[in-house]
Write a structure and sequence with these properties.
Distance between the termini: 67 Å
Structural class: alpha+beta
Number of helices: 4
Strand order of the largest sheet: 4-3-2-7-8-9
Strand content: 25-35%
Largest sheet: 6 strands, antiparallel
Low-confidence stretches: 8-34
Mean pLDDT: 84
Order of helices and strands: EHHEEEEEEEEHH
Length: 217
């Protein structure tokens, strides 16, 4: 199997569209790639940047070649079952579109971005689905897997690298190890999906709506 990799330059706010990223992939495909790095948004920016936030389970993942003005590229469609709408109004059905995937024995991937697998359950901050190469706010920072404690079966929220999330303010921090995260919150349990959803709704409801344009006298 041939693997094509690419990295995206560090940026604070992702506004890249499909075609510009395909150019990057073409330029970097011949060289070893480093992981994608993104400046993590703070919690309020994460909430305000999302078109909608959902708790969802992955139903299917399919990849295909598409022809673009820059050439052929592999895209993946991730069909989601929406378990809970936290903010906004997601379309039905909800199918995320990502650059990369595996088709005809070729894998094209953007290093550092989290993958979707059938059966995964996540809280997702969706932004510009169908126009961004990875349609989540802050790329990996907009995906929060829902995990289950192996002993108690209790559900908790993790960051995209699998490290438990203890406080919503921690989304701004660099992703580290589970032990480091626990050391910062020695007396706390990781956030439950319900608690995290409540924090998201509160932040969304507290956002100041834009002022209407003033009318000329």
């Amino acid at each position: 199997m041939r693997i094509v990799t690419a990295r995206i330059l560090r940026f604070a706010h992702e506004k890249s569209v499909w075609l510009s990223l395909i150019v990057v992939v073409c330029l970097l495909a011949a060289n070893p790639a480093r992981a994608t790095t993104v400046i993590a948004p703070d919690f309020n920016s994460l909430v305000s940047g999302a078109d909608y936030v959902v708790r969802a389970a992955v139903k299917s993942v399919t990849s295909e070649y598409r022809t673009t003005p820059q050439g052929r590229a592999i895209f993946t469609k991730v069909e989601l079952q929406v378990l809970e709408t936290i903010t906004g109004t997601p379309p039905q059905p909800l199918v995320l579109q990502l650059l990369g995937g595996t088709a005809d024995g070729v894998t094209m991937r953007v290093e550092g971005v989290p993958q979707f697998r059938v059966g995964d359950e996540d809280i997702l901050f969706v932004q510009n689905n169908g126009t961004q190469f990875y349609p989540l706010v802050g790329i990996m920072n907009g995906k929060f897997p829902v995990k289950y404690d192996a002993v108690t079966g209790t559900a908790y929220v993790a960051r995209s690298n699998g490290v438990p999330l203890y406080d919503e303010k921690d989304v701004k921090q660099e992703m580290g190890s589970a032990s480091a995260a626990q050391a910062q919150h020695p007396a706390q349990q990781p956030l439950s999906p319900e608690a995290f959803a409540t924090k998201i709704r509160e932040a969304h409801n507290n956002q100041v709506p834009p002022k209407p344009p003033s009318l000329a006298n």
